[in-house]
Amino acid sequence: MYSSPKYSAVGDRAFLVKFGDAIDLDINRKVHAFSRAIEEARIYGAEECVPTYASLLVYYDPLKTSYDRMVFALKDLESKLDEYTAKTEARVIVVPTVYGGTFGPDLAAVAEYHRLTEAEAIRSHSETEYVVYMIGFIAGFPYMGKVPEAIATPRLETPRLKIPEGSVGIAGNQTGIYPRESPGGWRIVGRTPLVLFNPCAEQPALFQPGDRVKFKPISEKEYRSLGGNT
Amino acid sequence: MKAVEVFRVVKPGLFSSVQDLGRFGFQRFGVPVSGAMDKFAFMCANALVENAVSDACLEVTLFGPELEALNLTQMAVAGADFSLFVNGKVAPLWETMNVKKGDVIAFSGSARSGCRAYLAVKGGISVPVVLGSRSTYIRGGFGGYEGRGLRAGDTLRAFASSLFPKESRVLPAELVPRYEDEFVVDVILGPQEDMFTAEGVETFLSQAYTLTPESDRMGYRLDGVAVRHKGATEIVTDALTPGAVQVPGSGKPIVLMMDAQTSGGYPKIATVTTSDISRLGQAKPGNKIRFRKVSLTEARARYLDFHGSLSRLEERLVKRRVF
Predict the structure, then answer these.
(1) What percent of chain B stands above pLDDT 70?
(2) Apex CA B242: angle with CA B289 and CA B203, to 5°?
(3) For residue B105, how many C-alpha atoms fall within 13 Å in the half-sphere facing its CB?
(4) Burial letters for A125-134: b for 16+ Cβ neighbours within 10 Å, e otherwise?
(5) Whole-structure pTM over 0.90, yes or no?
(6) Could you tell me if A207 and A132 are in contact, meaning their C-beta atoms sit under 8 angstroms apart?
(7) Fewer CB under 10 Å: which end of chain B, C or N?
(8) For residue A74, what is the enclosing H or E element?
């Protein structure tokens, strides 16, 4: 973690505030805390904030403010970071997941990579409690960590053109869920029937940064009874 | 407001989608901005039919559609240099037209110059507002016309307007943009230019890059001299903005456009300025792109100019009263 955040311009109407350079829970909490602090401060000309693992992208309206003015205003807010970081409240979301087979075509490869049985790999993935660090890539896709070293596996060398909606994947020590059919290179170990993104709902994304997540192994029959598609 | 049927899609063209000025405030949930690629042509099309600046238009790409009018309405097409026909007769771009029930509006062949044109219809295209916008977000399957590009047989509706038609408008010829085959675009270096060698940055700023066919509303993949990284070719995933120029391990830059994913793990050597992202909306495969470094101060001045020219668009149109 940096001793104080670093600012850099991103084009003519946004800038990056960087808190560190790693996937780290303490750094990530600062990112989300600062995002909330900026919103609540209602800084003139500030527009949307996009928090990620270790940095925050802040858009501004160049007709109302400038990069220099924004940085000046935000430096002032840095003193409130600890106060906002402490306010974090976590929910726990349980994600019912069918592992392996056609639902998780890469489970066998992940197990083999680490010389585990499939059952051991499932246990390792589902017994770990994850934290949602950020939402990105496509609407509603949660980036979660950290996957235990015992099953952490690099992305596929050649990404798949089609990954079904609800697929649960591993990329290094991150785990994520595809909210919609999409191309992608994560190792697919299972699939959930949960709907991750509904643009017409009051809260469109099921996951929020900071949420705690547990995967619960279910059978194919349970998957179907929960409304899952095959 | 009441919506009336205005067009039936006879042929959809290569890719035609409903767009407005974009969807803001949801990038943190992974929802891209979307919206018209070329803001000038989009806003001009709307101004020609006296619409509000962000009313939804049809964005057509390279090969345009064929539409049948289902009602009397006023429309305008602005942008790429297409051959436009109404009932087989040549029709003008950058000018208001009246069409009546049964008229066939056809974009013939491919655009001679430029890539995208906007078809505005009086009152604006009526599709549901999703997360604050009518823009189509293909990868998410929502917004626009059922979350997808148009297909043959679709029916487009527009908000009926009682003000129609008062006048006919045209953009003066000297203001009609010329779309060249080579684009020189302004960039501000960063946020990760320090991950590239000095030679790599020099290469990026001095070479011409060719837009490949693997380019769309999400991003333009470029071909040309590889830009060298100092070492690592990945970063801890951070936020992406339209205009970001990311360079993966191959060294071939990718310019992110309006439907870009909201986050990514490749270092970004530079970010294209707002007005030049809009200009790049008219670039097509085979075109050349050169990057020119500007300071933040210079970019800011250009942003204010660009915004000024868009807000003065309306008053610069030539208006003729319709009796």
Answers:
(1) 98
(2) 35
(3) 31
(4) bbebebbbbb
(5) yes
(6) yes
(7) C
(8) helix A67-77
d(CA A98, CA A189): 9
Nearest CA to CA, how far is A101 from chain B (Å)?
Answer: 26
B130 touches chain A (CB under 8 A): yes
Q: What pLDDT, on the 0 to 100 scale, is given for residue A83? A: 81
| Model pLDDT for residues B101-156, shown as the tens digit of each residue | 999 999 988 999 999 999 999 999 999 999 999 999 999 999 999 999 999 999 99
- DSSP element (H, E) containing B168: strand B167-170
Q: Which of B 21-80 lie inside 8 A of A, CB atoms?
A: 24-31
Contact A209, A51 (CB under 8 A): yes
Distance CA A130, CA A90 (A): 11
Distance of residue B305 Cα from the nearest chain A Cα, in angstroms: 11
What are A167-224's pLDDT values in tens digits? 999 999 999 999 999 988 899 999 999 999 999 998 999 999 989 999 999 999 999 9
Of B27, B130, B302, the CB nearest to A199: B130
**Structure-token pair, residue A184:** 């992608």
**CA-wise closest residue to A166 among A148, A184, A147, A150:** A184
Right CATH for A92-225 from 2.40.100.10, 3.40.50.2300, 1.20.1270.360, 2.60.40.1120: 2.40.100.10
- Which CATH fold topology does A6-86 show? Gyrase A; domain 2 (3.30.1360)
> What strands lie across the sheet with B3-11, from one edge to the other?
B89-91, B83-86, B104-108, B66-69, B3-11, B155-159
Contacts of B264 in chain A (CB under 8 A): 137
According to CATH, where is 2.40.100.10 located in chain A? 92-225
Correct CATH for B182-309 of 2.40.100.10, 2.30.30.40, 2.40.50.140, 3.40.50.300: 2.40.100.10
Ranges of each domain in chain B: 3-170, 182-309
Distance (Å) of CA A127 to CA A90, A101, B179, B309: 18, 20, 58, 58
User: Which residue positions in chain B have pLDDT lower than 70?
Assistant: 162-166, 322-323
Counting Cα atoms < 13 Å in the Cβ hemisphere of B300 gives 15
Chain B residues lying within 8 Å of A141, measured CB to CB: 30
Secondary structure percentages of chain B, helix, strand, coil, to 5: 15, 35, 50
Q: Backbone phi, then psi, for A216, in 5-degree steps?
A: -120, 115
**CB contact (8 A) between residue A10 and residue B190:** yes
ipTM above 0.90, yes or no: yes
> Mean pLDDT over residues A141-164, rounded?
93
Q: With an 8 Å Cβ cutoff, is A12 touching chain B?
A: yes
User: What's the rounded mean pLDDT across residues A120-130?
Assistant: 97
On whether the CB atoms of residues A12 and B307 are closer than 8 A, the answer is no
CA distance B44 to A190: 49
Q: Given the DSSP bridges, would you call strands A92-99 and A212-217 parallel, antiparallel or unpaired?
A: parallel
